[in-house]
Amino acid sequence: MELFRQCRKLSGQGYSQDSDEFAWVSLELHRELGLKPWHPFVVDVGSIAEDGDAPGDPSHLRDWLMVRDIRRRLVEAP
Predict the structure, then answer these.
(1) Predicted TM-score (pTM) of this structure
(2) Residue 14, CB half-sphere, CA atoms under 13 Å: how many?
(3) For residues 18 and 23, what is the distance between their CA atoms, to the nearest angstrom?
(4) Number of folded domains that form the chain
(5) What is the per-residue DSSP string for the chain?
(6) Running DSSP on this structure, what letter comes out for residue 41?
(7) For 5-61, what is each residue's pLDDT tens digit?
(8) I need a labelling partner for 2 at 20 to 30 A (CA). Which of 29, 42, 64, 71 fits?
C-alpha cells in the first residue's frame, strides 16, 4: 500500500504526525482502507511489538485489534 509507505517515509524524514502533509496522507490511507471515522488510524496503533497502547475499554478493543491487524499486514507487505 503506497499511502502507508508514504506515512512511514514522512515519519522517517522527521515530519510530525500533526503536520499537514502527514495528516493528509494518513487520512487518505484511512479512507482507502475503508475504515470508519471511529476506528483508530493505522499509524496510531503502534508497532507490531507494542500492545501496551491497547484501549482498556472493551468496547474499543475490538476495533483497535482489527486496525492493528491491518497494520501488521501493511508492514509485512512487500
Answers:
(1) 0.83
(2) 0
(3) 6
(4) 1
(5) -HHHHHHHHHHHTT--TTSHHHHHHHHHHHHHTT--TTSPPGGGS--TT--TTS-SSHHHHHHHHHHHHHHHHHHH--
(6) P
(7) 999 999 999 999 899 999 999 999 999 999 999 999 999 887 545 566 778 888 888
(8) 64
Cell numbers linked to 65: 485489534
**Contact assessment for residue 40 and residue 64, using Cβ atoms and an 8 Å cutoff:** yes
For cell 522517517, name the residue.
12
Cβ-proximal residues to 66 (8 Å cutoff; 6+ apart), any chain: 39
Domain with 7, as residue range(s), is: 2-76
Asked whether the beta carbons of 26 and 16 are under 8 A apart, the reply is: no
